[in-house]
Amino acid sequence: MKTLKYFSLSVLSLALVIISMPGCSKKKDENADAKRNVKYELSGTYTGKFTVLITDNESGSQVYDNVTIPWSKEVTYPDKVIAIGIGTSTTTDGAAGQTAFLKIYSNGSVVKSTNATADNNGGLMLPSLGHSF
């Protein structure tokens, strides 16, 4: 079971890096000096538990275990961070039909969002999100 969890997190981490890469660019963006205030939010009715992985192109990944809904994390990134991502993996199932919503806010506005509904067994697969500044 632990091997599957770590394998899932490794695949998730790789997917987040790949998602973030197309947004990387060497051209100067007129908003490059803007603050990068980001809020990650997990909401909904899902009663299961999650492992949450947040990553960026500079400092790597942060993992949060045993996360329950509602959950949020606010981060102010330096200018050198140009791509971020978040992914989840369920560690405890909820109940059939429960929902989960995953959002990334940048400077107060939703820039990416996704959602999922638990299957008949209470399992839930929430797609990962990536964002480039």
Chain-wise SSE layout:
Layout: H1 2-20, E1 36-44, E2 49-56, E3 60-67, E4 71-77, E5 83-92, E6 99-106, E7 109-117, E8 129-132
Antiparallel strand pairs: 1-4, 1-6, 2-3, 2-5, 5-8, 6-7
Report on the structure:
This protein is mainly beta. The chain has one domain (2-22, 34-132). It contains one helix and eight strands. It has one helix spanning 2-20, and strands at residues 36-44, 49-56, 60-67, 71-77, 83-92, 99-106, 109-117, 129-132. The protein has a four-stranded antiparallel beta sheet with strand order 4-1-6-7, with no helix packed on it. β6 (99-106) and β7 form a beta hairpin. The longest helix has 19 residues, at 2-20. It is elongated, with a radius of gyration of 15 Å. The termini are far apart. Residues 1-7 and 16-32 have low confidence and may be disordered.
